[in-house]
Amino acid sequence: MSLPVPVLKPDATIGIIGGGQLGRMLALAAARLGFRCHVFAPSPDSCAFDVVHRVTIADYTDTAALDRFATDVDVITYEFENIPAETAMFLSARKPVLPDPVVLATTQDRLVEKNFIQKLGIPTAPFVEVSSPDALKSALEAVGRPAVLKTRRFGYDGKGQITIRNGTYPSAAWREIGGQPAILEGFVKFDREISVVAARGRDGSVACFDVTENQHRDHILKTSRAPAAVSPTVAARAREIAESIATAFDYVGVLAVEMFVVSKGGGHEVLVNEIAPRVHNSGHWTIDGCSVSQFEQHIRAVAGWPLAQPIRHSSVEMTNLIGSEVDDYAAWLAVPGVALHLYGKGQTRPGRKMGHVTRVLSGPK
Amino acid sequence: MSLPVPVLKPDATIGIIGGGQLGRMLALAAARLGFRCHVFAPSPDSCAFDVVHRVTIADYTDTAALDRFATDVDVITYEFENIPAETAMFLSARKPVLPDPVVLATTQDRLVEKNFIQKLGIPTAPFVEVSSPDALKSALEAVGRPAVLKTRRFGYDGKGQITIRNGTYPSAAWREIGGQPAILEGFVKFDREISVVAARGRDGSVACFDVTENQHRDHILKTSRAPAAVSPTVAARAREIAESIATAFDYVGVLAVEMFVVSKGGGHEVLVNEIAPRVHNSGHWTIDGCSVSQFEQHIRAVAGWPLAQPIRHSSVEMTNLIGSEVDDYAAWLAVPGVALHLYGKGQTRPGRKMGHVTRVLSGPK
Question: Which of A129, A215, A312, B87 is the most buried (most CB within 10 A)?
Answer without folding.
Answer: B87
